[in-house]
Amino acid sequence: AHLAELSDKAWEDEASREELFSKVSDTFLEFLLKSLPAIGIPPISGVDDDVAYTIDGLDMSGFVIEKENVNIEVTPRSDVQSTTWDGTVLRLSATDMRAQFAKVMWSYRQNYFPYMSGQGVAGATISGVNMEMSFKLVRQSLIVDDAGINDGSNAKKPAMKQTLVPRLVLEKNSLEMECIELSEKGSTIGW
User: What would the pLDDT profile of 169-189 be if each residue is shown by its tens digit?
Assistant: First the structure.
């Protein structure tokens, strides 16, 4: 309820806007920190220059995000009311994130003579990770009846009508990484 009141006041009152951004920023950061460890990263594999490789053991639990590096921009009302508005209403960014991966497993296999192969474990540290997400407001067409949104069943219903409803959708999602450092912890190489 408090956030709803703040959002109503935020259009006109600078102090309310700052408090709202602070609360939304805290919530966004909390969401990121709780969600990142649960995000599974599947093994990465492929073939490059006729060498097959696999990297496994990556997880998001080692990510560090500082609150002061999280930025939230809400499109001002004046931009929303202009004729050049592109629909973007919210931008979230986090800069200078870093992460440590304690046990990254790797392997490779040459597909040509002398058919070398190897595998091992390494530690990895990444830094300078920047993330940006922007959200756009779009109109979605829905068929509704007197009782609400059509559930898609074939049951007889009152007269249906089509209506446009606003929907927030992800417009842009980018992730950049400046540096990765690897430290080998053990390996075998053979042919």
Answer: 888 888 888 988 888 887 777
In this structure, what are the phi and psi dihedrals at residue 160, rounded to the nearest 5 degrees? -95, 150
Contact 123, 57 (CB under 8 A): no
Q: What is the mean pLDDT of the chain?
A: 81
Phi/psi-derived region of residue 161, left when phi > 0, alpha when psi is between -120 and 50, beta in every other case:
beta
Whether omega for the bond prior to residue 76 falls within 30 degrees of 0, making it cis, is no
Using a 10 angstrom Cβ sphere, with 0-12 exposed, 13-18 middle and 19 or more buried, the burial of residue 99 is buried
What does the radius of gyration of the chain's CA atoms come to, in whole angstroms? 24
pLDDT tens column, 73-117:
878 777 777 888 888 888 888 899 998 988 899 999 999 999 999
Distance CA 66, CA 22 (A): 14
